[in-house]
Specification:
Layout lengths: L11 E5 L4 H12 L3 E6 L2 H13 L4 E5 L5 H15 L4 E4 L14 H29 L2 E6 L12 H21 L4 E8 L20 H12 L9 E4 L6
Parallel strand pairs: 1-2, 1-4, 2-3, 4-5, 5-6, 6-7
Helix pairs in contact: 1-6, 3-4, 4-5
Length: about 240
């Protein structure tokens, strides 16, 4: 199969939080399907290494350092991606952090860091990308949420609040944008075997892998045009 025959040939994808883990796996998957991929993260060195790895795999990748919690950074990110690659067809809001402390232990700084990254970041990047998608009457916005957006657990208050917020924001965005041909989806994985959070006592081989989340993203962006997958709940076959 030539590159022009690939399912996402000619499309441009922007993936946030893509220097490692889930975001990098998503960027690699979309690139292998023919998309040109812009990846962003705050760690310049890690981002550069990720882009070099994607390029070695034959993927057209552009690395742009940006902090999704800052409107000016987001504006620059989107402008640079469009200028270099063209109109953005697929946005994957993956950037996220986790702080896992009880209500008594958690600080205001913890709250601000998690909510700004996990929720405000989705708002800012989506807001920057959506107008052109509306104008072109096409596009996918995929928010990487979590089963923590549906389930409560001890020490998860701040993280769960951020992901419950993502669930609500995603649902509202979907209702607002569907009439304009823009499809908005949430993917909610359980715990994934990355360096994101500790996995003491768990069998990593039984856990979800970054590639499992990337596969779900691929399914969403290849859905038939008359429908869209609004939400994916992703769990491992066996409990780790």
């Amino acid at each position: 199969m030539s590159k022009t025959d690939l399912p996402l040939a000619g499309q441009v994808a922007l993936v946030t939080g893509a220097s490692r883990g889930i975001g990098l796996a998503i960027a690699r998957k979309l690139g292998s399907m023919g998309a040109q991929v812009a990846i962003c993260a705050r760690n310049v060195q890690a981002l550069r290494g990720a882009a070099e790895g994607l390029t070695r795999d034959g993927i057209h990748a552009l690395a742009i350092a940006a902090d999704v919690t800052l409107a000016a950074d987001v504006s620059g990110l989107v402008e640079r991606a469009r200028g270099a690659l063209g109109a953005i067809d697929i946005l994957v809001n993956n950037a996220g952090i986790g702080v896992f402390r009880t209500l008594i232990e958690a600080t205001e700084a913890d709250w601000n860091a998690v909510l700004d990254t996990n929720l405000k970041g989705v708002f800012l990047v989506s807001k920057a990308v959506a107008p052109e998608m509306i104008r072109r009457r096409t596009g996918h916005i995929i928010n990487i949420s979590s089963l923590a957006g549906k389930n409560a657990f001890v020490s998860g208050g701040i993280y769960c609040a951020s992901k419950w917020g993502v669930q609500g924001l995603t649902a509202c965005m979907a209702e607002e944008l569907r009439a304009h041909g823009v499809r908005v989806s949430a993917i909610c994985p359980g715990t994934v075997a990355t360096e994101f959070s500790p996995h003491a006592g768990k069998n990593l081989a039984k856990m979800l892998q970054p590639e499992d989340v990337a596969h779900a993203v691929a399914a969403v962006v290849t859905q038939a045009p008359q429908s869209f997958i609004s939400e994916v709940l992703l769990r491992p076959t066996q409990k780790p």
